């Protein structure tokens, strides 16, 4: 609690949202005490590289967001490896794993999520992996070796990024996806088909609309039986089928939760002095519904909303939702509404070109540009963001003409 007029902000979760909240608070001249509590022993680090560079170039990859020196410069007390086990909402305090109690004036829950489990595979123990934290990524370094047979369960972003990393290590890779599309939750069909073609061109065996009937260990092999009776044998299995938000602390404290911690437009929970941000938060949107967004950018945005609300400052101007993925030497960036009525290509969507492919997709609804995707065309993303922000009418003859500089078409 505040002492000598100095308030205390406690941040639970030392990931992207937690680290961003610290930077935003200090950038907005917050002079109170900040205590960062994490159950991991690491300093705050970035998660997007875990499926790529941390595995491929572990000795050359730096993922740290805030160093010891930076935390000290910012005046942050960092409690590591001693997570929060209980929130006392009425008393405005949290209880740590070691039994200590920490009081707060404002509390931010940035606890992220845990890998959604497949108990039948977990029961096998040996040779079965998930990817959610740094230790998970480091454990995969010796697994992804040339000639190893790898089965990936789940054809989402993580599954395809891991498939790319594994192929670069000359692994034999099979991806099993229950749905009819890869990245079906986050991309339109036209791009999903391109992504699928790229994986198959790279030698990945992608199985769509495929269910698993059974799994077992046979010596040093994992044997997976598909619904049709086919058996796949692998040296290792990695599954990534989404996350479960780490909301139990909030639920136990009596805060309002649904699939995650419900927050309003200010990132406040049902307790006005307790906030939530990042993967663990389902936020009230302009449409009147609560929605959870699992992106690096959203974690930063919500951290900024929290910090500015604490400081009584205006919220940052929200940009259209944006995220990216790197697969098989191709950079993909997404912005806006991926459920647009139609998608139109600027450039040649030619899967045979593989990593040389470069094009832009416009997502159009009611003749308005509402979404955009760049493929090896990152410099065009800022223009797409502007077009979407301005509710720009889509004019095919103008926006699909490659002789026109997209930058000059943005008014």
Question: Strand count, sense and closure of the main sheet?
Answer: 5 strands, parallel
Low-confidence stretches: 1-5
The chain-level structural class is alpha/beta
Radius of gyration: 23 Å
Please work out how many helical segments DSSP would assign.
12
Can you tell me about this structure?
- The chain is of the alpha/beta class and 411 residues long.
- Helices cover 23% and strands 28% of the residues.
- It has twelve helices and 26 strands.
- The chain has helices at 16-27, 53-56, 68-73, 119-122, 134-140, 157-168, 189-201, 248-252, 296-311, 381-389, 396-399, 406-409, and strands at 8-12, 33-37, 76-79, 84-88, 93-96, 101-103, 106-109, 113-115, 128-129, 149-153, 172-176, 205-207, 212-218, 221-226, 231-234, 236-239, 243-245, 261-263, 274-276, 281-284, 290-291, 322-327, 330-336, 342-346, 359-365, 368-375.
- The strands form seven sheets. The protein has a five-stranded parallel beta sheet with strand order 3-2-1-7-19. The chain has a five-stranded parallel beta sheet with strand order 9-16-10-11-12. It has a five-stranded antiparallel beta sheet with strand order 22-23-26-25-24.
- Helix 7 (189-201) links the parallel strand 11 and strand 12 (205-207).
- Helix 1 packs parallel to helix 9 (296-311).
- The model is unreliable at 1-5 (pLDDT under 50).
